[in-house]
Amino acid sequence: MSANIVIGTQWGDEGKGKVIDILASRADVVVRAQGGNNAGHTVVSGGETYKLHLIPSGILYKDTLCLIGAGVVLDPKDILGEIDDLSARGISFDNLKIDPRAHIIMPWHIALDGLSEKFRGNKDIGTTHRGIGPTYMDKYERSGLRFYDLVHPEIFREKARSAGELKNAVITKVFGGASLDIDGIIEEYIGYGQRLAKYMDDVSVLTYEAAKAGKTILFEGAQATLLDIDFGTYPYVTSSHPLSAGVCTGTGVGPMLIDGIYGVAKAYTTRVGKGPFPTELEDETGDYIRNRGGEFGTITGRPRRTGWFDSVIVRHAVRVNGLSCLVINKLDTLAGLDTLKVCVAYKRPDGTIIKDFPPTLEGLEGCEPVYEEHPGFSDDISGAHSFDEFPQVAKDYIARLEELCECPIKMVGVGPDRSQIIER
Ligand code: GDP
Ligand code: IMO
Ligand code: MG
């Protein structure tokens, strides 16, 4: 048996979905432990593209058990839409299970996400407007609604009414927003609960039992290290723990169960939403990478900000996640650039050089990336089947990233399809 975690090392969209899908061909169980439908994980197989939000990326294998753990926030309407769309494409949900402890995203969370972003004005975070932050706020305030409540109408009616009435007061009296029809919402959501009830099961027990039975388990990280609520670029982060440690609290298993942690990075860097981005390229090279890499958000369609590979960030991810290895995706996207720059350190305004990612925005302010330059490659590598087929400069680039990040690079992505991965 083995249990491995797949984590994002940058600001998300590193191709975690693709890596999970590839590793899932050898896995019995795939588990989501945190985040919600702010995630957009793309899997491309046999010419078909699947964009998954909450459903674990193991779902394309019909015998794989797909689990949604206690640490996830669940939008019932959205997940039912996802189930309906994928069912229409022949995907089976017989093996989907959702933990009763998972918190429910309600329409007032979505409304409050939008209203607080608007209130922040030009200091907005650039959230996905999916209600993620407000739902985690209620969870930690101990006033949230859980999946168990949703599938029990009497419990749900009572809890949702008092929660909804309070939120309505905040929406209308604090933000001047439109009042929600709480009774209508409650009855609508009871209907969703009835449809989802059959999926309820204790994910902590299922995962533990699978491990004891010698099954192969994969934990699918959503979001990424620099979006972690503590170790990311706070406050420009999400409201959960996308780190490897979040997998244990979000599933209900101990750290000794884990055998390995894969960190996924792109061969460059992207970010959606606001917040610092030291290696950002706001020029033609940035546009080239965006257009060639199709860097537009899976969830919101927003153009992703693009920049050079930043080894300060990925080294931070190696440390805070305890990564065993790295996967570098989208090397193919860099083809055609004369020079590839890699950030090796930051230079502070006072001239000092730092190699560890600063803990605060204030510490990051004014930091300039220190670059080293590498020759680019023009060859199309998307059809390569082995590392040996890469041009020498591409091999050297990967070898240098490995050295700078202080972590072995085990796989390199050369295209979106399942088959376009090179094991090293
Ligand atoms: P995730 O959120 O980490 O699962 O990543 P997304 O699915 O949001 O974004 C990654 C995008 O890159 C998707 O469109 C993938 O199909 C695509 N992709 C993944 N790996 C590669 C690769 O190696 N090369 C190319 N060209 N595209 C890739
Ligand atoms: P995957 O799993 C990229 C970003 C949002 C915003 C910030 C907070 O596909 O890599 P939120 O709605 O979570 O409160 O927004 O986090 N964000 C992501 N960026 N990939 C994601 O997920 C993201 N999930 C959230 O853009 O900047
Ligand atoms: Mg994504």
Task: Name the descriptors.
binds 6-O-phosphoryl inosine monophosphate, globular, 424 residues, four-stranded mixed beta sheet, Adenylosuccinate Synthetase, subunit A, domain 2, 13 helices, 19 strands, nine-stranded mixed beta sheet, Adenylosuccinate Synthetase, Chain A, domain 3, alpha/beta
Report on this model:
This protein has 424 residues and is of the alpha/beta class. It folds into 3 domains: 2-98 and 200-261, Adenylosuccinate Synthetase, Chain A, domain 1 (3-Layer(aba) Sandwich); 103-196, Adenylosuccinate Synthetase, subunit A, domain 2; 265-423, Adenylosuccinate Synthetase, Chain A, domain 3. 34% of the residues lie in helices and 20% in strands. It contains 13 helices and 19 strands. It has a 9-stranded mixed β-sheet, with helices on both faces. Strands 13, 15, 16 and 17 form a 4-stranded mixed β-sheet that branches. Helix 3 packs across helix 4 (132-141), helix 3 packs parallel to helix 6 and helix 6 (153-174) crosses helix 7. The protein is globular and about 65 Å long. The model has no long low-confidence stretch (mean pLDDT 97).
Q: How is the secondary structure organized here?
A:
Elements lengths: L1 E7 L7 H9 L4 E4 L8 E5 L2 E5 L12 E4 L4 E2 L1 H13 L7 E3 L4 E2 L2 H14 L11 H10 L5 H4 L2 H22 L7 H15 L6 H10 L3 E5 L23 H8 L8 E7 L2 E3 L12 H10 L11 E3 L1 E2 H11 L3 E5 L9 E9 L5 E2 L6 H4 L3 E8 L16 H14 L3 E5 L7 E3 L1
Parallel strand pairs: 1-9, 1-10, 2-5, 2-9, 5-7, 6-8, 10-14, 13-15, 14-18
Antiparallel strand pairs: 3-4, 11-12, 15-16, 15-17, 18-19
Bound molecules: guanosine-5'-diphosphate, 6-O-phosphoryl inosine monophosphate and magnesium ion.
